[in-house]
Write a structure and sequence with these properties.
globular; 2 domains; alpha+beta; about 210 residues; about 25% strand; Pnp Oxidase, Chain A; 9 helices
């Protein structure tokens, strides 16, 4: 098996890992901040999308997108972020993780900019109306919000996005080149027809974004 072949080549400690790459570039080591400076705040205000990474107490991990109009994430002070929870499918994987392990990572994107912003911190779930009401969208106040106590902040270079050509329209595939989510759900679950799944998704996208 491939896994058996890989075992002999698996790197198992940081010393061996660093031996294959060399020392950290000095500027890369210095760029980590313990707060949101003016550049991080401006980037977050422009960002319509982030990825939230979380982990269970036992170590299982999850990554989930969060998105809305640019500036949907609030920054009440340089060491705090508040992410409103917009309507989803109620799996609540990230929130369940945070209840047992508050450590989270955030990766912010801004369309057209290849660099990203990374934030680490501790998360807590709030239901405080004073916090949530200013984050209302389309007249809907979020049921809860994720408050992140910021611990580390750094900008990440754009090499990955440049290589992937993420923002280049010439690299976008035609939507019909990959099955619809309705078709995938129908095939994976056998609990609904593709037509019904696609109709449900279309309705949710049209009327239940908020």
């Amino acid at each position: 098996m491939v896994s058996d072949m890989l075992d002999d080549q698996t790197i198992r400690d940081e010393t061996e890992l660093r031996g294959r790459f060399g020392p950290v570039v000095p500027v890369a080591a210095l760029k980590v901040l313990d707060h949101l400076d003016e550049y991080a705040l401006r980037f977050i205000a422009l960002s319509p999308l982030l990825v939230l990474a979380s982990a269970e107490a036992g170590g299982g991990t999850d990554a989930s997108p969060r998105g809305d109009a640019p500036g949907f994430v609030a920054a009440p002070d340089p060491r705090t972020l508040v992410i409103p929870d917009r309507r989803g499918n109620n799996r609540l994987d990230s929130f369940a993780n945070i209840l047992t392990n508050p450590q989270v990572g955030l990766l912010f994107f801004v369309p057209g900019i290849d660099e990203t912003l990374r934030v680490k911190g501790a998360g807590e779930i709030t239901r405080d109306p004073a916090v949530l009401e200013p984050l209302a969208a389309q007249g809907k106040v979020p049921a809860v919000g994720l408050v992140v106590r910021v611990r580390e902040v750094m900008f990440h270079c754009g090499k990955a996005l440049i290589r992937s050509r993420l923002w280049n329209p010439e690299g976008h595939i035609p939507r019909g080149a990959f099955p619809s989510l309705g078709r995938i759900i129908a095939d994976q679950t056998a609990a609904v027809t593709a037509e019904d799944a696609e109709a449900n998704l279309a309705e949710a996208y049209r009327t239940r974004l908020y």
